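Input record, target 12 of the design panel.
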């Protein structure tokens, strides 16, 4: 059985890691380079670096900060935020990223997913999805939003599950599913959302938005059927360590990669 991955997320704004609630009221969490090195030592399986205001501010990602962060890592690094072309992706890969994540640009130009997959392979292309539950829709439904670094973002006409399926058809090799309703609340992931997308696609699904306890991580993989869990607040502010999270999941029967004993 494949191991489940634990992935700290660095939301970076103006060169600092920040964390808010539903993309608002951000507070400073630290220096991305120092935090990346710490998570690498602590046994994180991967790291995600999002320049969260790049798309909203219509600018490119901070390549120099990405490069310094990548220099600290011996684990895979995914980078996203403001990537609008294959050349942008290439610059990030050259700066040290192993995968690139596209969200707003993929919605605006779906062909970018195929172009990136053809240029670098599907394993390098991650679809980031910021989604919000559609109220009063009867059956559970979620809509995709863009430009979310500026707060609530912009609603689109895209259904989240349908968009995930289409993105995989275009060549996306992984999907990070972020619930805007749960993001930063530490009240738990949207398990219905995770389960719906995990069952609809054949590529790995990463749970994002809402982790507040170790039980939430377990629920994401056991009930939400996610392949990995992405979290920020519980790790950034010292509630739990990566080691504690892995130990908890292991005791619940979830396969995880353990740190080698030296």
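The sequence produced for target 12 reads:
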């Amino acid at each position: 059985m494949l191991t489940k991955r634990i992935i700290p997320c660095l939301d970076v704004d103006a060169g600092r890691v920040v964390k808010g609630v539903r993309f608002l009221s951000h507070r400073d969490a630290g220096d991305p380079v120092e935090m990346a090195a710490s998570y690498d030592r602590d046994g994180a399986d991967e790291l995600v670096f999002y320049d969260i205001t790049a798309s909203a501010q219509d600018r490119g990602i901070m390549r120099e900060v990405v490069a310094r962060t990548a220099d600290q890592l011996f684990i895979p690094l995914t980078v996203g935020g403001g990537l609008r072309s294959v050349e942008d992706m290439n610059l990030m890969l050259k700066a040290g990223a192993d995968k690139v994540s596209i969200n707003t640009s993929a919605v605006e130009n779906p062909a970018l997913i195929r172009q990136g997959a053809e240029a670098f392979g599907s394993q390098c292309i991650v679809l980031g999805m910021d989604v919000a539950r559609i109220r009063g829709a009867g059956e559970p439904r979620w809509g995709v939003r863009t430009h979310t670094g500026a707060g609530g973002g912009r609603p689109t006409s895209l259904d989240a599950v349908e968009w995930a399926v289409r993105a995989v058809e275009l060549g996306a090799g992984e999907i990070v599913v972020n619930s805007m309703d749960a993001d930063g609340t530490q009240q738990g992931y949207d398990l219905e959302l995770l389960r719906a997308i995990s069952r609809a696609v054949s590529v790995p699904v990463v749970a994002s938005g809402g982790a507040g306890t170790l039980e939430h991580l377990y629920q994401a993989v056991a009930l939400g059927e996610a392949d990995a869990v992405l979290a920020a607040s519980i790790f950034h502010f010292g509630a739990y360590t990566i080691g504690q999270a892995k130990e908890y999941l292991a005791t619940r029967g979830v396969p995880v990669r353990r740190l080698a004993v030296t």
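The chain has a mean pLDDT of 89.
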